[in-house]
TrEMBL record:
<keyword id="KW-0472">Membrane</keyword>
<feature type="transmembrane region" description="Helical">
    <location>
        <begin position="226"/>
        <end position="250"/>
    </location>
</feature>
<feature type="transmembrane region" description="Helical">
    <location>
        <begin position="256"/>
        <end position="275"/>
    </location>
</feature>
<keyword id="KW-0812">Transmembrane</keyword>
<feature type="transmembrane region" description="Helical">
    <location>
        <begin position="192"/>
        <end position="214"/>
    </location>
</feature>
<feature type="transmembrane region" description="Helical">
    <location>
        <begin position="152"/>
        <end position="172"/>
    </location>
</feature>
<protein>
    <recommendedName>
        <fullName>DUF2157 domain-containing protein</fullName>
    </recommendedName>
</protein>
<feature type="transmembrane region" description="Helical">
    <location>
        <begin position="109"/>
        <end position="131"/>
    </location>
</feature>
<keyword id="KW-1133">Transmembrane helix</keyword>
<feature type="transmembrane region" description="Helical">
    <location>
        <begin position="77"/>
        <end position="97"/>
    </location>
</feature>
Length: 289
C-alpha cells in the first residue's frame, strides 16, 4: 500500500513525463505542492488524485501539446511517429540495393506508420471518453522510485549465484569429475587473476551491494541513483580493459566466447547507462522527490 507522499510522487512523475523538458521541474514542484495541500488529511488520497484528472489531461492543462489527436496524446504521437519512420528507413537502408530502390520501397512507404498511429490514438481517445471508469489512473511504483522487493530478492540471489559460478567454474568442474581439458579451458589466465580480475570482481560485488541496499530501503534515492550510474561506468571501463588486456581463460574457445559475451554486455550496459543518465537530467523532480 503506497503512502500519500508516494502516491503524489507517482502522479507527479506521470504528469511531468508528458511535458516538454524545460517545463518539467517547475511544473512538478508546483503540482507536488498543490497536491500535498489538496490531500492533507484525506482518508482516500487515491480517489482524490483520480478526481484531479488523468495525468495526460493535467499535462495538457499545464503545457501546450500538439493537437494531432487528443491533446494529452499529442507529444507521444509525434514521438512514436518519428521513431517508427526512422526505424523503417534504417532497416530499409540495410535491405535496399541502391538509393532509388530505398526511396521507392521504404522512403515513401514508411509514411503509412503515422497514419496507422492516428487510427490507434484515435481509438484510444474514443475508448477513454466512452468508458472512463476503465481508464482510471493507477499509480506505478516505479514512477515513485519504489522497487518490487520480491523480484529484487530473486534477482539478487540469481546474480550472486551467477557470480559464484563464474568465479569458481574450473573448481566446480573439477569437483564434478569433468575432463582435465574442460577444467583447464575454464581456468583463469594467471595475469587476469593477478591484475584485471580482482578489479572486475570488486566492482561486481559493489553493484550487488548497491542493489541489496535499494532492496532493503524499498526505493531508489538520489544518492543510490547517482552511485548506480557511476558504478556502471566504472564496470564498463573495467570490462573494456578486459577485452584488450590479454586472455581471460586458458582455453582459446572459452576465452573468445566470454569476450564476445563481454562485448555484448558492455554495449547493452552503456545504452542502459545512457538512458539512466538521461532520466537523471530530464527528471530532476523524481530524483529530488
Amino acid at each position: 500500500m503506497l503512502t500519500t507522499e508516494e502516491l503524489i510522487d507517482a502522479y507527479v512523475a506521470d504528469v511531468a513525463r508528458l511535458l516538454p523538458r524545460a517545463q518539467r521541474a517547475d511544473v512538478a514542484a508546483e503540482l507536488r505542492a498543490l497536491l500535498r495541500e489538496e490531500l492533507a488529511g484525506s482518508d482516500d488520497p487515491l480517489a482524490r488524485l483520480r478526481a484531479f484528472g488523468l495525468p495526460g489531461d493535467v499535462a495538457a492543462r499545464y503545457g501546450q501539446p500538439a493537437t494531432v489527436v487528443d491533446p494529452s496524446d499529442g507529444r507521444r504521437f509525434v514521438r512514436w511517429s518519428v521513431v517508427g519512420v526512422v526505424v523503417i528507413w534504417l532497416l530499409g537502408g540495410l535491405a535496399a540495393t541502391d538509393p532509388l530502390d530505398w526511396y521507392r520501397s521504404y522512403g515513401l512507404a514508411a509514411l503509412w506508420w503515422p497514419g496507422f498511429l492516428v487510427v490507434c490514438f484515435g481509438l484510444a481517445g474514443f475508448a477513454r471518453r466512452r468508458w472512463p471508469a476503465r481508464f482510471l489512473w493507477r499509480p506505478r511504483k516505479s514512477a515513485a522510485g519504489l522497487v518490487n522487493r520480491p523480484g529484487r530478492v530473486a534477482a539478487f540471489a540469481f546474480w550472486v549465484l551467477g557470480t559464484v559460478v563464474l568465479v569458481s567454474a574450473a573448481w566446480l568442474l573439477e569437483r564434478l569429475g569433468a575432463a582435465p581439458e574442460a577444467v583447464r579451458a575454464l581456468t583463469f589466465d594467471p595475469d587476469f587473476v593477478r591484475f584485471t580480475g580482482p578489479v572486475v570482481l570488486a566492482l561486481l560485488v559493489a553493484e550487488l551491494a548497491l542493489y541489496l541496499t535499494v532492496t532493503v530501503h524499498g526505493r531508489w534515492r538520489p544518492l543510490t541513483r547517482h552511485v548506480d550510474v557511476a558504478l556502471g561506468l566504472l564496470t564498463c571501463a573495467a570490462l573494456i580493459r578486459v577485452l584488450f588486456a590479454g586472455p581471460v581463460y586458458l582455453g582459446a574457445a572459452a576465452d573468445s566466447t566470454v569476450k564476445f559475451a563481454i562485448a555484448v554486455i558492455v554495449a547493452v550496459s552503456l545504452l542502459d547507462l545512457l538512458l539512466k543518465a538521461r532520466r537523471l537530467i530530464r527528471r530532476p523532480h523524481l530524483v529530488a522527490g
